Amino acid sequence: MDRNNISLVENVFEDAVSDDCEYSPPIFLEWKMVFVGIIGLIVALISIIHNSLLFYTFSTSTVLRKRNLTYLMWISGCDVFISLCYIAIMCVQVYTDYFESFNLLVLWHEYLRAAFTVSHITLSAASFLLMAATVERYLQSTADNRTLKLFQILATHRAYVVFCCFLGSLIFRGTVFFEIEVVTQPNCTGFSSMGLAVVPMFGESMDVVWRFFVRKIVTVFLPFAVLAYFNASIVMNVRRTDRDQTVKALVLFITVGTRGEVTRLRSRLRAVTRMLVMVVTGYLLANILDIIIAFWETINIQSLQEQPSLYTVLSDISSFLPIAACALRLPIYTINDRQIRVEVRRKFCDLITRCCPCVLCVNHQRKKLYDHQLESERLWPKNEPTPKLEIRNYGLQSLIMARASLSTKEIYDIQRFRESYDV
């Protein structure tokens, strides 16, 4: 995104270096200190802790690796860097102005280009990864055989999709490093002796095309539009196919196991879908203000700059909302998915036990924090044969219904149901 977490810094880039060496502090400095320097710092630290724990859990848990939560794992990794860059760029800038620390100002200018570039790349990568996860879930929610084949292709090449997401982010956002230059004024001292400037790369006309049309459309407007469309489509498809899932649940009840197991299978798919829908909805709500500002800047930036108070407040809020969305990832995952909740708690206790052993975590570890019912939520393992039908467990009426329902197409639907589960 063009403005997420770093929108206010772009305003600094556009300011010309003052010739009279007069330093004027930013407006609403007290507001910035409270909202960005305190609240923003706390939320960013929470986001770093939450997403670091999620990334560690997804990458080390053998149970969760079977579900192929690749996109969610890398999104959590991106969220860690996004939150770190928010602190390094936005919070430190406010501290520099509020405490009038020249040493902090020099340090901020030294790492700004790298932090600015990393923030841009990880923001775009997280958006692309979320797009890939949403499109994949949409293909699962449809009943078309062609979409199933496309889903199988994407599901077997997730590593390549992740690589393409980061590569695209690097192409469209990596040039930010060369578009920024730290300038100094030898005739001035203090805060007026250093500043930032935008360096043209392709010429004035081409820079406008690249920055405000190609890059902004691909990394700002396109992800927002795609996620909004597919998120709504997923919800509609889930409602439309609920009756079909009921028929499949009946067949699975007859051929696989007890009614409780089938119910848990269906609830797991709904939980995963609900979890992704909540994440995407949070992304859309967190970026709607950024989209409005970006659209306003593209059409008439002068009218926006003529209202510095409004521009400053909107920029601070639009930079804060994505960090808040990042901090909510862990609560969303743990509330909707029981298996993720158990694995996160287990990994957290393992880390606490290694660093500072305590009785509580040792007791949790002795219990292994493992619910054997979670494994029974799975269908039969892929390497094992399909369980045979036990007539004595279900009765004659269920057997007749199974024979009437279980055709070649239904067997294929069971296979689709099993494949769509392992995500």
From TrEMBL:
Tell me which stretches of the chain form a coiled coil.
Answer: none
**G-protein coupled receptors family 1 profile domain ranges (all copies):** 50-333
Query: Which InterPro entries does this one have?
Result: GPCR_Rhodpsn_7TM (IPR017452)
Provide the Gene Ontology terms for cellular component: membrane
Return the PROSITE patterns for the record. G_PROTEIN_RECEP_F1_2
Subcellular localization: Membrane
- TM helices/strands, residue ranges: 33-59, 71-95, 115-139, 159-178, 208-230, 275-296, 308-332
Keywords, sorted A to Z: Membrane, Transmembrane, Transmembrane helix
Q: Does the keyword tRNA processing apply?
A: no
* Protein name in the entry: G-protein coupled receptors family 1 profile domain-containing protein
Query: What species was this sequence derived from?
Result: Caenorhabditis latens
